[in-house]
Amino acid sequence: MNNLTDEQRYLQLQTLPINDLQTLLTFAGQSRTGKRQELVDRCHALMKSSMVIREKCDELHNKRFGQGEKPTIPYPRDSTNTLRTTHHHLHSNQQQNVEIRFAPFTFNEDLCVISPPHAIAPSKQSANGTQSLANFYFLLTAQQASDVATSTFYSTDQSKIEYRKQILLRFTTIGGDSTHNGINAPDKLPPNLHVIVNSRAVLLPQPKPTAKPNSDVIRPGLGRPIDITEYCRLCPLISNLIEISWFTQDLSVPPPTYVAAVFLTERKTVPQLLARLSRPSAIRPSIETQRTITQILSASQTPQGIDNDLEVASTSLRLPLDCPAMRIRMRLPGRAVTCKHVHCFDLEGYLRMNEKKPTWLCPVCNKQALYTDLFVDQFFIDIIGKCSSDAKAIEYETNGQWKAVGEEKLSRRAQREREAYKAAQAAKNTNGKSTADIDHSGDDDSNDERALTKSTERPTTTNNAQDDIPIIELDDD
Question: Directed axis angle between helix 6-15 and helix 51-65, to 10°?
């Protein structure tokens, strides 16, 4: 589209909605107020003198009308903004920039650093606890503001408008009991945290329940940054203010020094993450899994034995085809390289569970299974494709042969318990019925006796009543 004439450029602007025109003006650092025709004329004047504006207009036009996506105009990946260090709190001079690298977040890919990590030491100590206050400004560039503003979509799960490119606020600790040494530092929220962005309180994760009175409010911030995109001003001319405060009442140990930073990231969906795992180079061949199973079966026949976590028979190994977490047939079976077992779980369900609550624990062995350690097992993909829908597991023999196992053989003990329960219930019902019949016959006999007694008593009562009636004889006179 770079060869369009001036008239064609003007017609192109006429087809864009007001939101895109305002986005283009925001990208150029110009005022976005006014009527539609005024916005068109303003954008047209900018396009005459700037090729960057013309490329941005082509990008918006392609996204809007589906003529193929054009790559976003890149900006330096590790670029940092100059902070306007206008702090209002008394203890703002305790903020210091530190060299630290946060652990990568699975569902967000870092694009650039908006506000570099800086340490905020405790600012106020008293007999009741330690309190920390800090605030700082950051300013988005025109490119960053445009990228975030044009990445909106409607989330059916949350029933609201969300952003594919997000601004995240992350916390971690340095010193004390921290073991990361500034590399791959995990997210950790301070106790009793309150965050205000542009005079709006940020919604934080729910705190952990506790029964201790007057205890600190600890939020499960491990592995989960704070999304502040909807609270930010997406304009390169207006700065954003973040106010942070927290305190702790635990004086038994010295409070750690927390580090805060702001990142611009791109949201990754579960299908995108699965596509990375499904690459041919990331799939483990079937021969490797078969070799592992053979080693496990061979180890089970040695005097030393193997790990108790592995469900091993003497001559075969039973491998379920259902996901232990989702309780359904696996569609994309896999596991982590850190797992010692060969049992798999469904990778899609595993990612969706960790998207809502990041624990990253294997549902089979309950050990850590990070996304970077996951792989797809081709052996189980082939097995699931060959088995029928009613097959619940397979039994792999020592000779390399396998056979499908149905529900009855898979739960033989449960089947015996179920049959015993049914027999006990049948016997109970039979005894109860016979007893009820005896009681019912006894009741019938008593009812018959009462009926007979009443029938015999009624005439007697009638005759006695007749005897009691005086008889009056009348004379002829």
Answer: 40
